[in-house]
Specification:
Elements: H1 3-28, E1 33-34, E2 36-38, E3 46-48, E4 52-57, E5 62-68, E6 74-76, E7 84-85, E8 89-94, E9 98-108, E10 113-114, E11 117-118, E12 122-132, E13 136-144, E14 150-153, E15 162-165, E16 169-177, E17 182-187, E18 190-191, E19 194-195, E20 201-205, E21 209-219, E22 224-237, E23 245-251, E24 254-259, E25 273-279, E26 282-284, E27 288-293, E28 300-305, E29 315-320, E30 336-340, E31 366-368, E32 378-383, E33 393-398, E34 403-408, E35 419-421, E36 426-435, E37 448-454, E38 476-484, E39 489-498, E40 506-517
């Protein structure tokens, strides 16, 4: 007998048996795991009407499945049935605008995981599909009076040339469907010339001429947009209304006067103007070296001062004795007496991460800074009840005899939200405050707010504001202090509120914190 042959045959059977057993074991250990995908899952399953959306069931361990679509809403491509499918991959075209529930019923070999959670062997899933109409709509334009009231609506059509007097303001708005997210207005001849917010906008026209208007509304996902271009929409004609001085502000070499419409350069005479600067009891009468029209905006006159500058702590007034000065539509400018200059400041917090307007964070970003009692005796909440600008402010309640110390931190609370300051430059630290109590009690120590900073704070900063009985309540009030930083640094505020000695809690709103360069007269 050939024992070697028998032994080899035995080994062969053993290998086959082992292989079959291993294969059976593999089949028995296949996991059950729910995994469902769509072609727009990263974009909240939002599509344009008639857009394509694919569904995929790539779950492991599925014995059977059934997709169910709302009746009359979608077309299941390449199949005669538009409401039910048992395929693992389904390609659809949604034809009805709105939100629609797509349901998937799955039966698994055994209890299935959903993520890391073990669930049953029969699972039901609902996928909400949002179908948007194409972006489309129209624009509306209304002429306003001097008080901001609507006077009349303009006809929006090509070549209509709506006649509007120079110096008038037009309020533009839009009516759109399709949920656009990106907006762009182009106002030929208008101020502003460009606007990119999703709100109505007031545009002033100061120059004679015929002008177009364009509005673009669009979205990236799902892609879509509409462009409304109106040719020769406005005809700005001469006005019989007075030429108004809208604004007086500083410029590099002196003072800028912004009028309601364009000024005729041939009628401009520097000797008709007078500038007076008062500071600390001293009066300065600077010489006006020249008066010119701004080359980019002909409604602005620039008064250049000889050997003099305007500082943030100056009180500056402008006067004009009526001469030949007139607008380009031939209306003379009336005399101006002691019109105050408003020093324009640029808030450096706007370009920082610090949530100066209380619009971009949550309550969890405004944290107690662990100074101990009584500085933990307060509550802070973002609120929509009052806002100096935008829609949100910070509402603060300091307990009776309590205090507050808080800072603005990032989402994981690992660091403050900071802004950069320069060394040895005077800054104005400002804040808008709304006291929602009817009155403020007279105390030996009045409630107050102080803005400290880290690193390198000046612990001697003064109240900003101090809540005396004379503090105006029931309206927004601007408060400011000055600060100079010894070193250039990236800093953040430690905002301290005190209510010591007050037997009652103290409530107020805070909004639009600002830090602005404000050079002081040497």
């Amino acid at each position: 007998m050939n024992y070697k042959y028998i032994y080899s045959l035995f080994l062969a059977f053993a290998v086959v048996f082992t292989a079959c057993k291993d294969e059976e074991d593999v089949n028995l250990t296949v996991p059950s795991h729910r995994v469902i995908v769509t072609s727009q899952m990263d974009f909240e399953n939002t599509v344009n009407v008639n857009g394509i959306l694919s569904f995929g069931d790539v779950s492991a361990g599925v014995v059977s499945r059934k997709w169910t679509f709302p009746n009359g809403v979608a077309d299941i491509l390449d199949t005669p049935n538009d409401t039910v499918s048992t395929l693992s991959k389904v390609k659809t075209q949604f034809k009805v605008v709105g939100e629609h529930n797509v349901k998937l019923h799955q039966e698994f070999y055994k209890d299935a995981y959903d993520g890391t959670v073990l669930k049953g062997s029969v699972l039901d899933t609902t996928i909400v599909v949002k179908v948007l109409p194409f972006v489309s709509g129209n624009i509306v334009a209304n002429v306003l009076d001097a008080d901001g009231n609507i006077v009349r609506e303009l006809t929006v059509a090509d070549d209509i040339k709506n006649e509007v007097s120079a110096g008038s303001t037009i309020r533009y708005s839009y009516q759109m469907e399709g949920e656009p997210q990106i907006f762009n207005w182009q106002f030929e001849g208008g101020d502003p010339a460009v606007f990119e917010e999703n709100t109505e906008v007031d545009v002033k026209y100061k120059k004679l001429g015929v002008y177009d208007v364009q509005f673009i509304a669009r979205r990236e996902r799902p892609f879509g947009g509409d462009t409304i271009y109106v040719k020769d929409f406005l005809s700005i004609i001469p006005s019989t209304e007075p030429v108004l001085l809208d604004k007086v502000y500083q410029q590099e070499n002196g003072v800028a006067l912004e009028f309601s419409r364009e000024i005729d350069v041939n009628t401009l005479n520097k000797d008709d103007f007078n500038v007076v600067i008062q500071n600390g009891g001293n009066t300065i009468n600077p010489t006006i070296e020249s008066a010119v029209i701004n080359p980019d905006e002909a409604n602005i006159i620039l008064l250049n001062l000889a050997s003099e500058s305007v500082y943030s702590n100056d009180n500056v007034t402008i006067s004009y004795i009526q001469g030949e000065l007139q607008s380009t539509d031939f209306v003379k400018v009336e005399s101006i007496v002691d019109r105050a200059l408003v020093y324009e400041k640029e808030n450096i917090l706007i370009d920082s991460d610090f949530d100066y307007s209380f619009e971009n964070g949550t309550n969890d970003n405004w944290l107690y800074l662990w100074w101990g009692a009584p500085w933990d005796k307060y509550t802070f909440n973002l609120s929509n009840a009052q806002a100096q600008d935008g829609s949100t402010s910070g509402h603060i309640t300091i307990d009776a005899d309590g205090g507050m110390i808080m800072g603005n931190k990032n989402d994981d609370n690992s660091d403050f939200l900071r802004f950069d300051v320069e060394a040895n430059v005077n800054y104005e630290i400002g804040v808008w405050i709304y006291v929602d109590e009817a009155s403020i009690p007279a105390l030996a120590t009045q409630p107050d707010v102080r803005f400290y900073w880290n690193p390198g704070t000046d612990w001697g900063v003064v109240s900003n504001p101090l809540f005396t009985p004379e503090f105006q309540t029931g309206e927004w009030v601007y408060s400011a202090t000055n600060a100079t930083f010894d070193n250039a640094a990236s800093i953040s505020f430690m905002i301290r509120g005190a209510n010591a000695g007050n037997p009652n809690e103290f409530k107020f709103y805070m909004d639009n914190i600002s830090v602005s360069k404000a050079p002081l007269r040497p």
